[in-house]
Design a protein that fits this description.
Elements (H helix, E strand, L loop, with lengths): L1 E5 L2 E5 L5 H19 L3 E4 L3 H16 L4 H10 L12 E4 L2 H11 L4 H15 L22 H17 L7 H32 L13 H10 L2 H25 L9 H14 L1
Antiparallel strand pairs: 1-2, 3-4
Length: about 280
């Protein structure tokens, strides 16, 4: 740490963060992305009627826990609680987008972006060495998968989130802006990639050489963006809130100069060094 006195002010020139610590954080970010790609949670399909029916079912379950007299009164005041609920639809949700938002916010740029880029690189060439980071396998031909564009979007999302939240001060506006920018960039790149692949393979030999998902491209768009987007936003916002103390801890633990001193101590130390020299 170098100390520079200018008038009555004391400036601290902090050394760069520990290179070893940053490498460890890159590996942690890589591991988080890897874990998120293999996590699948059954959640109600995010359509209006399906979510309403799901909420109604939860309400009915709560009412059944109440005393009989209270149940009877609720059924009379709100008959819909006694009506049968239509069959619900569930989809497997993979929290890769919230994980990207989380590491972008906690680890920041460039650590989070390096972790995302390394995840993409190892997932692409890893199968040659028996390493599989992608849930669907991976490999150099993985670019033909409809979800490959979303993996590219993860890299951009971590960069945007890290840049927007680079300031040490925590503001709700900056956090919300980072979440919105990360979600838009991730899904926009994924959608452009899916539709671009569809157009490319459609123009080359009439799509005969395209991937097997090509005839159901709009179904892929629905499953990859339309249904997961509400959950991505909710879980992404929750992880940003939970990640603030972790972000502070990351910044402290990776800095070699973590013992802060008062201005008086800094001035005294500087004067001693000047006398010695």
């Amino acid at each position: 740490m170098r100390l520079v006195e200018s008038g009555s002010k004391v400036h601290q020139r902090i050394k760069r963060k520990s290179l070893a610590g940053q490498c460890v954080l890159v590996l942690i970010g890589l591991q988080l992305l890897f874990v998120s790609s293999f996590v699948a949670v059954q959640l109600p399909t995010a359509t209006e009627h399906n979510l309403i029916n799901w909420g109604l079912l939860q309400g009915q379950c709560i009412v059944k826990l109440l005393p009989p007299l209270a149940q009877e009164r609720l059924y009379k005041s709100c008959p819909v609680l006694a009506a049968p609920v239509k069959k619900l639809r569930y989809d497997a949700y993979t929290p890769q987008a919230p994980a990207a938002i989380f590491i972008g916010y906690v680890l920041g740029y460039p650590i989070a972006t390096l972790a995302a880029a390394l995840f993409l690189l190892i997932g692409t060439i890893g199968p040659f060495f028996g390493v599989y980071l992608f849930a669907s396998g991976g490999g150099t031909d993985y670019y033909t998968q409809p979800g490959f564009g979303y993996l590219l979007g993860i890299v951009v999302a971590t960069w945007l989130v890290g840049k927007i939240t680079a300031a040490e001060t925590r503001t709700s506006v900056r956090q919300l802006a980072a979440l919105v920018a990360g979600m838009i960039s991730l899904h926009a790149i994924g959608l452009v990639y899916v539709l671009g692949c569809s157009l490319f393979f459609g123009l080359t030999e009439g799509g005969a050489s395209g991937p097997d998902w090509l005839p159901w491209v709009f179904e892929q768009v629905r499953n990859l963006s339309w249904y997961p987007l509400p959950y991505d936003a909710i879980f992404g916002l929750a992880l940003i809130g939970l990640g603030f103390p972790i972000r502070y801890l990351v910044g402290v633990l990776t800095a070699p100069d973590i013992g802060l001193r008062s201005k008086a101590d800094i001035l005294a130390q500087q004067r001693i060094e000047e006398l010695l020299h």
